[in-house]
Amino acid sequence: MEELAKQYTPKEVEDKWYKYWEEQGLFKSSPSPDKEPFTIVIPPPNVTGILHMGHALNDTIQDILIRYRRAQGFQALMLPGTDHAGIATQNVVEKSIAKEGLSRQELGRDRFIERVWLWRQEYGSTIIRQLKKLGVSCDWSRLRFTMDEEYSQAVKSVFVALWDKGLIYQGNKVINWCPRCQTALSDEEAPHRDLQGNLYYLKYPLKDPGEVKYIVVATTRPETMLGDTAVAVNPKDNRYNKLIGKTIILPLLNRPIKVIADANVDMKFGTGAVKITPAHDPNDYLTGKKHKLEFINVMHPDGSMNEAAGDYKGMDRFEAREVILEDLKEKGLLEKVEPHALSAGHCYRCHTIIEPYLCPQWFVKMAPLAKPAIDAVKKGKIKFHPERWTKVYLNWMENIQDWCISRQIWWGHRIPVYHCQNKSCLNIMVSTVKPEKCSKCGSGDVVQDEDVLDTWFSSWLWPFATLGWPKDNDDLKYFYPTSVLVTAPEIIFFWVARMIMAGMEFMHAIPFKDVYLHGTVRDIDGKKMSKSLGNIIDPLEVIDEFGTDALRFSLISITAQGQDVFLSKERFEQGRNFANKIWNASRFIFLNRDPAILMVDLCAFAKEKNLNIVNRWILSRFYNCLEKVQDSLDNFQFNEAANTLYSFFWHEFCDWYLELVKPQIHDQQTQIIIGKVLEKYLCIMHPFMPFITEEIWQKLQVHPAGSIVSQNWPHMQKQFLDKEADSQMQLCCELIAALRNMRQEMDIPLTEFISAKVFVKDKKAALGMEPLLVYIKNLAKLKDLSVECDYRPKKGEYATVLRQVHLVIPLSGVVDIQKQLCKCENRIAKLETEIGNKQKTLGNRNFTARAPKEIVEEEKEKLKQMTEQLKKLEVIKNALR
Question: Which of 147, 120, 130, 143 is nearest to 55 (CA)?
């Protein structure tokens, strides 16, 4: 058996063992009829991505589950892949070619796509290499990319199937438009941010003014008034009853528009009269449809004003706003401006304020797809963890809107729609391959639609397209449905809900059984980590400084189910310290262990031998730990599992067990128990800290030919759960701790061996104490310890009570009683003065009424602690008299 180095150095072992795991094929998984599958498809990181703390948390959780189930005998598959990230990747490559003085338009579509593929070939594997640094046990032979040829075929097949079913259509609707990226965005891709804007009150003159000269409307976006085709009022608003149906003149463009009545108008907003711009507002779009209004788009795709904007043509939308306001003011048509808080959508990639914009797009009808996915969750086939997300999911699904799936960019899955260019035909064909000629008129002039599909249209197929669908194959039959999805709540609508719908529609089965939604990683002040705030903690820097195991364990130990993670770099010291503790304890065991007894069967040995109480106790504590860890992992309570592992090893195994058995360290029974507990502990710690456990495991030489990756999870042995040993050893540890405290209170150094007495209620209790005495004497540094019954207080003895057991230290000849008594009385006098001052402060109504509540509570807590200390000192004084 090899020895361990004096110090654990992560850099010396991590790359070595990951390379070994890959070379040995330990992460590969294929259908096995003798095993139950356990599958996780990782949320594919963007091909442009680099590892951040969100990835680190997400992938560590998945890897813990995979390593746990693999050890339990499942055929565990962690399937990796990357997403082509249409908008993000196109932006990155556009910036790259701009350095060469080129634009994508100058290159043309085909050459630009070639450049994107070259970029992906050079940089697209960065995130994969970083995931390997994290230690994730993916089957890398199955690495998928959402633009792979086979995956692209799956995407096209889904589009065609939905088209054939009448669920895809092209419509001219108001959508979220990014003027910077010049593409449509879904609602989820245009998150709203609070802004401080203004409410502008504009006068719209009546064509035939009478008593009323004009109607005043309030708006936050004056530039869109150029596209107004009506002003609406609530039919119940008595202020405007006489104006309904009247013609008014649109300022600046002098276009006549009508005053219409609509019950959706909020009478309390602004003046109660609102401008209707059907081409630039989603609510106005619906109003325009209902009242058959004209739809006038006044902007170009880049956000500049178009011909319909009259004299403002060519101006940027925000520039036009200022000029329009000046012109209205000059004409006396700007009544007033008020500060107004508002919420505006922003592009999730470039953060430009989105423009509600009327243009033709491709849509999926979602309601028919949503119903089976709603039923699957309501019937419990799919469970959310934490459970509260079920309600959020169902609320969104039951109010689902049609999905805008087209994007006006070049990088992505080009929509498989083909247009006949014969002007007398203009037939539309939908096919997975380009038609040679028009199916209607026979023309060979057929072109493919320019748009590409929303990136999420490919990733909603992830659980089955990664397994070879639409081909029917063994992988798909065996590994689908997958077992667990681990992701973040912010993509529950982007991705989770859509995967469920896709699974139900195309596989006729749920895509996964459980959805674990972890919290967001924030800094120690609660702010979400972001580059703009400068509060990012780079996981690769943490790995370099503390090690991968420290990163993984620290993250998991503070990640309560469903709660956000508040992180500072100092947090990782806990993981590093724990790794060092495991290493040092293992090294101590290695230095004191006989390799000849490594292969002993624990159950058989325990059955044959009469184990002493300490060994019975540590086995009981280990299997109690094992049971709690399994229960926690089965219920997605990862931090509880981590903290259980930490508490057992650090406190019960190291702080107590190793110290208790040091005098008998070379005893055969102790050798076997200490070795078996370490061996089994490494197995259950492995999913959390894979590298250090592999390094120690290999040096153990218990299974020379194997890796800890392929070891079986320890079986639960309930016969080792020993409540009697637990109770007795708890008392033993409490007595040792109490004796140490008593020595400290009496200034008795640990180097001085003293006598002590334990008083119990009867002879039976005294008999039960006998096995503990040797351990108490050793760790409490006692020269003798007696067990007696019927405690009676005696002068010159210091006593304390623990669970009906009196613990006594005779002081005569051990301490200078008069000196200690004087010292104790001085401390009492000082404490009484401090207590009096504190009581006076808390009795002052001015203080309790004016001081912050937390300060008052803090002072009360200090008084409580001081009072308890005084009682203790009184006991000591009485013992010294």
Answer: 130
Alpha carbons 412 and 452: distance in angstroms, whole number: 6
- pLDDT tens by residue, 473-524: 999 999 999 999 999 998 999 899 999 999 999 999 999 999 999 998 888 8
Order of all β-strands in the sheet with 428-430 = 428-430, 417-420, 446-448
**Do 803 and 745 form a contact (C-beta atoms < 8 A)?**
no
Query: What is the largest distance, in Å, between two alpha-carbon atoms of the chain?
Result: 117
**What is the distance in angstroms between the CA of the first residue and the CA of the last residue of the chain?**
59
Give the pairing of strands 805-810 and 355-364. unpaired
Report percent pLDDT > 90 for the chain: 75
Q: Alpha helix (H) ranges present in 592-689?
A: 602-608, 613-634, 638-647, 659-661, 668-685
Hey, is 316 helix, strand or coil? strand
The verdict on pTM exceeding 0.70 is yes
- SS3 for 410-479, per residue? CCCCECCEEEECCCCCCCEEECCCCCCCCCCCCCCCEEECCCEECHHHHHCCHHHHCCCCCCCCHHHHHH
Structure confidence at residue 95 as a pLDDT band (50, 70, 90): very high
User: Which residue type is seen at 276?
Assistant: I
In the block, which residue shows the tokens 């990357």? 82
Q: Over the stretch 707-722, which tens digit does the pLDDT of each residue have? A: 999 999 999 999 999 9
Task: Tell me the C-alpha distance between 133 and 16, whole Å.
Answer: 11
The Cα–Cα gap between 10 and 6 comes to 13
In the block, residue with structure tokens 């469903």: 562
In the block, tokens 């109490």 appear at 738
Long-range pairs for 659-667: beta carbons < 8 A, 24 or more residues apart: 659/779, 660/614, 660/775, 660/778, 660/779, 661/614, 661/615, 663/778, 665/592, 666/592, 666/594
Cβ-proximal residues to 93 (8 Å cutoff; 6+ apart), any chain? 104, 112, 115, 116, 119, 411
> Which residue in 4, 2, 1 sits closest to 582, CA to CA?
4
Q: Answer yes or no: are the C-beta atoms of 609 and 542 closer than 8 Å.
A: no
Q: What is the mean pLDDT of residues 253-264?
A: 96
Which residue bears the tokens 């990014």? 178
Confidence of residue 705 (pLDDT cuts 50, 70, 90): low
Provide φ and ψ at 170, rounded to 5°.
-105, 130
Q: In the predicted model, what is the mean pLDDT of residues 697-714?
A: 85
Beta strand spans in 16-140 (E): 37-41, 75-79, 81-82
Residue 184 and residue 353 in contact, taking contact as beta carbons nearer than 8 Å: no
Q: How confident is the model at residue 548 (pLDDT cuts 50, 70, 90)?
A: very high
**For 627-643, b where at least 16 C-beta lie within 10 A, e where not — what string?**
ebbbebbeebbbbbbbb
Distance CA 633, CA 629 (A): 6
Nearest CA among 456, 425, 428, 455 for reference residue 441? 425
Q: Which helix (H) or strand (E) holds 752?
A: none
* SS3 of residue 792 by DSSP: coil
| Residues 4 and 697 sit within 8 Å (Cβ to Cβ) | no
Per-residue confidence (pLDDT) for residue 652, from 0 to 100? 97
pLDDT for residue 815: 76
- Dist. CA 255–CA 231, nearest whole Å: 12
- Strands of 495-570, DSSP E: 512-517, 521-523, 565-567
Look at residues 49, 72, 71, 52 and name the one whose alpha carbon lies nearest to residue 60. 52
Q: What is the mean pLDDT of residues 379-403?
A: 96
Structure tokens at 710: 């392929």
Q: pLDDT digits over 15-57, tens only?
A: 999 999 999 999 999 999 999 999 999 999 999 988 899 999 9
**In this structure, are residues 443 and 420 in contact, taking their beta carbons and an 8 Å threshold?**
yes
